[in-house]
Design brief:
Layout lengths: L1 E3 L2 H9 L5 H20 L6 E6 L3 H15 L3 E6 L12 E5 L9 E2 L8 E4 L14 E2 L5 E5 L4 H4 L1 H6 L2 E5 L10 E3 L2 H7 L13 E5 L7 H12 L4 E5 L14 E2 L18 E4 L8 H10 L4 E3 L1 H6 L2 H5 L5 E3 L3 H8 L7 H12 L2 E4 L4 E4 L5 E4 L11 H14 L4 H17 L11 H12 L1
Parallel strand pairs: 2-3, 2-4, 4-6, 5-7, 6-8, 8-9, 10-19, 11-12, 11-14, 12-13, 14-15, 15-16, 16-17
Antiparallel strand pairs: 1-10, 17-18, 18-19
Length: about 450
């Protein structure tokens, strides 16, 4: 995992550093200089403009300038407070104007086609929310120090930062509560099926779909199977059967009304409730949450039908999977720009693990721990992809993965699977097989 710190947390980390600030600045400057030489492809005959501001960010840029000069690069330092409209001609611009603490509009100078290397975060990007403050630099590469910042992952910041490198400059960030999930984490968090395993040890019940709306149920069930569930039970309340359901899924009928009190979940390790279930299911969803002693994923209509009391009163883990519109249904408002705070607050208020969908998926537990999954891309913006995600989470919960890590792993694997699929025309039905391939490759 890679740590993620807010600007305020990073300020406290800096203050607690056992070494002088000059030492830290020199290390940051060295990391910037190395990245600059890499981008330049050498030093001979190269010209670099360093735009340096008044704070530590500017000091990092000036430290990089000294090292580059010592290596034979022609360096021009420009005071960011002079607000130049156009940067002098160069082979590379180092943006060290303003760091993560910028709280006012800033107009970055025009850079033309000259590549930009940003120090910590592109100037003009809010370090907490990723929002653009005025006109931000558009960097090809960003070297950030010791930890990622939320603004590098969210909103405009995700695009403006380019490729991001985290440079270790010797600060202690071990106490931070937010991290980005890496592929190596997937292997360490997903338990291997033991040699003596039987199907009931990872049995998942998918309660989803409604008459005429069975596609979501099929996708969730197939995803659970492909993500490693040993047995998948598929039920659609009031449905008479699924002709096109996965042949491996065991179909069990449930009544249209009162199905929440008709559940026998004694041998079920996890359940997924809600994809395509239809509205006005609140009483039965609440009854199901009370009846099932296993971990439950609430997705789609199940998520918006459940009462807050039914969720908070459960002793077994519950995973909520809202997109922004469902977040509004749950809280009365769309997620604020500070999405890390939003997902933490909803997890704390419900007592559940919350997976907030978006270009970067954030997963929080009630303690305030947050895991960010960044593997996905815009190809996941297709009907049914959320149903697949719910099925993956259900399978991982059934395998014994704890709820926070199951949701984060599912989001990361979902994204990695997408990236291995069609560049154009990817549909949700493609994803389950890609999920199986991805898990086989990374675990």
């Amino acid at each position: 995992m890679i740590p993620i710190t807010t600007p305020e947390e990073m300020r406290r980390v800096d203050e607690a550093a056992p070494e002088p600030v000059d030492v830290l600045i020199d290390r940051a400057g060295a990391a910037l200089a190395r990245a600059a030489v890499d981008m330049l492809g050498g030093t001979y005959g190269r010209r670099v403009v360093v735009l340096a501001g008044p704070g530590n960010n500017g000091a990092d840029g000036r430290a990089a300038a000294r090292r580059l000069r010592a290596g034979g690069v022609r360096v021009v330092e420009v005071d960011a407070l002079d607000s130049p409209e156009v940067v002098p001609p160069a082979d590379l611009i180092i943006d060290a104007a303003f760091g993560t603490s910028l709280n006012r509009d800033y107009r970055a100078p025009i850079t033309g086609t000259t590549p930009v290397l940003a120090a910590d975060i592109p100037s003009g990007i809010d370090g907490l929310t990723g929002a653009e403050l005025g006109r931000a630099f558009r960097a090809q590469r960003t070297v950030t120090f010791q930890a990622l910042k939320p603004g590098l992952l969210l909103a405009a910041g995700r695009v403006s930062a380019g490729s991001v490198e985290v440079a270790d400059i010797g600060l202690d960030v071990s106490a931070v509560a937010a991290h980005r999930v890496e592929t190596a984490d997937v292997a360490s968090w997903v338990p291997q099926r033991p040699s003596g395993a039987h199907k009931w040890q990872s049995a998942c019940w998918v309660i989803a779909g409604s008459p005429g709306m069975t596609g979501a149920a099929h996708l969730a069930a197939r995803a659970a199977l492909r993500a490693g569930a040993g047995y998948v039970r598929l039920s659609t309340p009031g449905g008479s059967g699924h002709d096109r359901a996965p042949i491996e899924a065991v179909q069990v009928a449930l009544p249209a009304d009162g199905w929440g009190t008709a559940l026998d979940g004694d041998r079920i390790a996890a359940a997924v409730i809600g994809p395509g279930l239809g509205p006005a299911q609140g009483a039965d969803v609440d009854a199901a949450l009370a009846a099932l002693a296993c971990p439950v994923v609430l997705d789609g209509d199940g998520l918006t039908s459940a009462s807050p009391e039914a969720i908070s009163e459960r002793s077994a883990p519950t995973v909520l999977t809202p997109h922004d519109g469902e977040f509004r249904s749950l809280t009365g408002a769309m997620p604020p720009l500070d999405r890390f705070a939003a997902v933490r607050e909803l997890a704390a208020s419900t007592g559940a693990v919350v997976l907030l969908k978006g270009p970067v998926t954030l997963v929080a537990d009630p303690s305030g721990r947050v895991l960010a999954a960044t593997a996905g891309d815009q190809r996941l913006a297709t009907a049914g992809s959320g149903d697949v995600l719910a099925g993956i989470i259900g399978a991982l919960l059934a395998s014994g993965t704890n709820a926070l890590e199951a949701a984060a792993v599912a989001a990361q694997v979902h994204g990695l699977a997408c990236r291995s699929g069609h560049r154009v025309g990817l549909v949700a039905g493609d994803l389950p097989d890609l999920v199986a391939d991805t898990l086989s490759r990374v675990t």
